[in-house]
Amino acid sequence: MGVVEVELVQVTEADKSVLANLVQYYRYDFSPIRHFELTDHGSFVYRYLDHYFVDSSDREACLVRHRGRLARFTMTRAKGEGALALREVAEFFVVRAHRRCGVGRGAAALMFRRHPGQWEVAWDDNNAEAAAFWPVVVPEIAVGEVERVAEGPPRRTYQQTVLRFATC
């Protein structure tokens, strides 16, 4: 696949409503997997949004543009300290119209390059799209070995596959 024109732009307070809107589509896409229900206001709850603006020293949200058009978002956060410190992909979403054309792959590469070092990507084992995407994309950007483990309760809320790797 050729190079796809993708731009990653860090979300600012001025973009908070845009990110909040995109999170609704993300939660909707996940509703069959995680059984998310609408509130009485017709929206999905995402309790971590404000953390990306209040705890911004260890969290980062970015909007992704494909050929100038809004196509997705990424949300990452620092996890652990010292030698155990790593960055994890908290949320990763591509609008359906921009899927399967390299936008996700390009955005993932840019996201990982923004924070060289140790990374962790985890996905719900019931998420077939993530299970097809991450094992292909991560080795393309990883430096060295990619560790793959299965984790579930009590360490994780649900059964997940986790990839741990380094980038530079």
**How do the helices and strands follow one another from N- to C-terminus?**
EHHEEEHEHEE
Biggest sheet layout: 7 strands, mixed
Shape: globular
Structural class, judged by helices and strands?
Answer: alpha+beta
CATH class: Alpha Beta
Low-pLDDT runs: none
CATH superfamily: Gcn5-related N-acetyltransferase (GNAT)
| Continuous helix count | 4
What do we call the CATH topology?
Aminopeptidase
Walk across the major sheet and give the strand order.
1-2-3-4-5-7-6
Domain count: 1
Binned, the helix content reads: 25-40%
If you average the pLDDT, what whole number results? 93
Which band does the percent of strand residues land in? 25-35%
CA radius of gyration is 16 Å
Summarize the structure.
The protein has 168 residues and is an alpha+beta fold.
What's the SSE blueprint?
Elements: E1 6-10, H1 16-34, H2 51-54, E2 59-66, E3 69-79, E4 86-94, H3 103-114, E5 117-124, H4 128-141, E6 143-151, E7 160-167
Helix pairs in contact: 3-4
Description:
With 168 residues, the chain is of the alpha+beta class. It has one domain (6-167): Aminopeptidase, CATH 3.40.630.30. Helix content is 29%, strand content 35%. It contains four helices and seven strands, in the order E-H-H-E-E-E-H-E-H-E-E. It has helices at 16-34, 51-54, 103-114, 128-141; strands at 6-10, 59-66, 69-79, 86-94, 117-124, 143-151, 160-167. The chain has a seven-stranded mixed beta sheet, with helices on both faces. Helix 3 (103-114) packs across helix 4 (128-141). The model has no long low-confidence stretch (mean pLDDT 93).
